[in-house]
Design goal:
With about 170 residues, the protein is mostly helical. The protein contains six helices and no strands. It has one domain. It is elongated.
């Protein structure tokens, strides 16, 4: 039996109260992690590690573009690597998208030819001529049927190939 009993309010209210035993254990584990356990310091770099880092930095700085619109992003800072990785990722995405676009446009060219040929004439077989529409045109329009047919074929074939290439990409 202790010889002295502390009946003060400070001693009584200083002790934490827990809702359950699990709360008490989690509180003690957090306290140990925060107060008792210390993080291990990373080792100091050796001269070989420093030389390796300097060589890596030199090669990394050499790979930067000479002419860029965001030249401040390439200055020495921790954000430099993230900017460079993001830029490389976007460039790779754009290159892949462009090549897939070309492949899709090439594969859809037969369909584009069919659409272009269909748009060269009206339903009755008459060639599409710009002078036949009710619109204001200048006095010396070129009503050569072959010219209008070529223009409509090019317009519809190329636009169909572009749309199909975009959808493929």
């Amino acid at each position: 039996m202790p010889s002295h009993f502390d009946n003060s309010y400070n001693k009584r209210f200083a002790q934490p109260t827990y809702d359950s035993e699990e709360d008490r254990k989690s509180y003690q584990m957090r306290r140990e992690a925060d107060e008792v356990l210390e993080l291990k310091q990373p080792p100091l770099p050796t001269p070989e590690m420093e030389v390796e880092y300097i060589d890596w930095l030199k090669n990394d700085l050499k790979s930067d573009p000479w002419l860029t619109y965001r030249f401040r992003k390439y200055t020495a800072s921790p954000k430099r690597i993230g900017w460079k990785n993001n830029r490389d990722t976007k460039l790779q995405y754009k290159t892949t998208f462009f090549f897939n676009f070309l492949i899709g446009a090439g594969l859809s060219w037969p369909l584009a030819v069919v659409v272009g040929r269909r748009m060269k004439h009206y339903q009755g077989g008459v060639p599409v001529v710009p002078g036949l529409h009710s619109r204001f045109t200048h006095d010396f329009i070129n009503v050569e049927p072959a010219r209008a047919s070529r223009q409509f074929f090019r317009w519809y074939a190329i636009s169909t190939a572009l749309v199909c290439g975009y959808l493929f990409a």
